Every structure is written in C-alpha cells, then in structure tokens.
Amino acid sequence: MALTACGTRAEEGGGGTTGGGEETKTAVIGVVAPLSGPLAPLGLGIRNSVQLAVDQANESGAIPGWTLEVQPEDDQGQPDPGRNAATSLSSDADVVGVVGPLNSSVGQAIQPVFDSASIVQVSPANTGTALTQGADPANPERPYETYFRTCTTDAIQGPFAARYLYETAKVTKVATVHDKKAYGQGLVEAFSAEFESLGGEIVAAETINPDDTNFSAVISAVGDADPEALYYGGEYPQSGPLSQQMKAAGLDIPLMGGDGMYDPTYIELAGEESEGDLATSVGAPAEELESAQAFLDAYEAAGFAEPYAAYGPYSYDAAQAVIEALKVSLPQAETAEDARQATVEAMAGVSFEGATGPVAFDEFGDNTTRVLTAYKVEGGEWVADQTDEFED
C-alpha cells in the first residue's frame, strides 16, 4: 500500500471527512524532535515515522468519527526550544498525545509541561533512567504518569556496553568521557558501575562541554592513562570529531558510545579512522526483524525524503501506542481535549506487536522489552555485531 506524507496539520488546516463524506472530529498527535541542526537526521526520521502511522490509521478508519493529524515542532535538540514546543502543543486543544523527544535533557524539560496538561507523551529515544524512575536509582519512583517510552534505558544500555567490552572484546581498561548532559552523564555512570563490577578498571574519567570542537586536552589526559578503549557518553556531533582527533593524535583505540552515536553521520565526521569504533543502540536491527518488514516497506512506499534513521521503528511504535490508547479514549469524548486524561489512563494497558517487537509498558512507563545491539564500524558502515536481550 503506497502512502504519501501528506497529513501534517500545518499543511492541512483541520477537520476531515469519512469516505462517505461525513464530517469527522480532529485529534492531533504532536511531535517534538530536532528538525534542524546537527541532530536533524534523527529528528526527521522520528517525524516521518509518526506521520506514516497516522496516515495508515486514517486510511484504515482506525477511530471512527475522528481524523488524526500530526503537528511537528522543532526542539533543535535543546531544552529551551523543547520547552517552547511543548508549551505550544499543550495550549492547542486538539492535541491529545505527543511523540518525542530525542534527547533526554529535552525530555526532562518538557515532561512537566505535558503532565500539567494531562497529555500523554511517548518517547522513542529518551534513554535517561531518571525520566521514568526518578533521581534515586535505589528507590525508583515514577515522576510523571503521562510519560512513557518505547526504547530501553541507560540502566540497561550502559551495562550492556560494559559486558560487551569486557566479555566479548576482552577489554579490561577503559577511559570515559561524557558531555555533561543528562543522557551522556547517565550513560557513562551506568556503564562504569557495571564495568567495574565485572572486574574492569576505569583508568580516566573526563568531561567535555556540549559545544566543544577541540578535544586536545581531554585526549592528552586520556592517553596518559593508557586505556584499551574509550567509552563516550553523548551524541555523534561531538563523538565523531573526538574519534578523528584522538586517532590523529596517536591514540589508536576504539571509541564506543550509545545510541546517540549510532548514525551514518558519526562515520562521516570520524572519517576513515573510525574503523573498529563501536556503538550500542536500542533493539535489534530493523532489517533483520520480521515484525519490522511491513514498516520498512510502507516507509519506502511513502516516499519520504529522509531515511527513518536509528529511531524510525521506535517512533512508529510510539505513534501506534498513542493511537491504540486513542481507540479507547476518543469514542467516549466530545472533543480531543476531553480525551486527554482518558488517553493517559488507557496507555498503561496498551499492548501490541509493533515493528520493534512486543510493545507494552511497566509500572514506570518503560517498555518491557530490553533488547539491544552492539554495532561496529566495518568498511565505512555500521554493522551489527551482537544482539541480545539484557538480563539482570
């Protein structure tokens, strides 16, 4: 079934009709993601994947009497623009759910905005553990009942990476660097705790600023510690140049990071010397999942200008989760705004087979599936090296 990307609210206005010409009510699913700036390749894949899910829902008449629309908002990968985007969406009475954001630091900024408006929020990419379990890992407490996510968390991803390096790659000495943001810092903390518990040694622990471009000082400090690998917490706009600069300086060890690094742009920025670098990302490779084939085929048929990127399938499933909840809440509501709290309550019971596999949420709003993949740069491309379901 060929679909076209033609359903954004900015383009269409509002309202709609059924196939029989009857007027339908309008409900809007917002998208908060970086649609401009260095992280735009990931954000545009999120937006397009949500659009695909909404187009399919409207095509099939998934919610009789209602037409769904998408309202994308650009957070530029930064908390302040994200907060502005969330405020804009929450003040729109037709908005009944939101997919996003990409960055955990943006997630922290916008959670209270959507919670105060009783708007359900499902992130396909936030991995910061505190977003669902609070600041004290020893005493987890859910901060916001409106927040859910389809991806796994850094409490899983960090230890998964540590086990891969120590047990599979046989690395025993690691240096760490993070960008001081919520995602990067949390990822490094989770990695370090697991790596040391396995018997590994963290020989250096350094930080950079999110807008740094010259990493000579941190490279020198890391090199003096003589690590066998460097584990980085952050995203590809910094980790790519960091890898390139450290190899040029003679520190020829693999750089490993999390899902914020897993994008072709990392390899472009790091250059040929990125060969052998590593990253983990949520889930199994989409092209290897039978459950994802329908999504992959439909995305290609829709003719989007941008690839679905690392979070496309998870964004599609996030939108599908919102739609499943709306099937419960909207038929009982006069307006979209009336359905907001009922949508939040319905989300807790959502369970379906998604593009990424089974989708359901635990008591914290986290996805119950905990599959991750370790990727390695080989021949100028990310190649899946190991996929496993993480077990405590």
UniProtKB/TrEMBL annotation:
Keywords: Amino-acid transport, Signal, Transport. The keyword Transport applies. Gene3D superfamilies: 3.40.50.2300. GO terms for biological process: amino acid transport. CDD domains: PBP1_ABC_LIVBP-like (cd06342). It holds the Pfam family Peripla_BP_6. InterPro entries: Leu-bd, Leu_Ile_Val-bd, Peripla_BP_I. The keyword Signal applies. Residues 1-22 are annotated as: Disordered. Residues 29-379 form the Leucine-binding protein domain. PANTHER family: AMINO ACID BINDING PROTEIN, LEU/ILE/VAL-BINDING ABC TRANSPORTER SUBUNIT. Belongs to the leucine-binding protein family. This is ABC transporter substrate-binding protein. It comes from Auraticoccus cholistanensis.
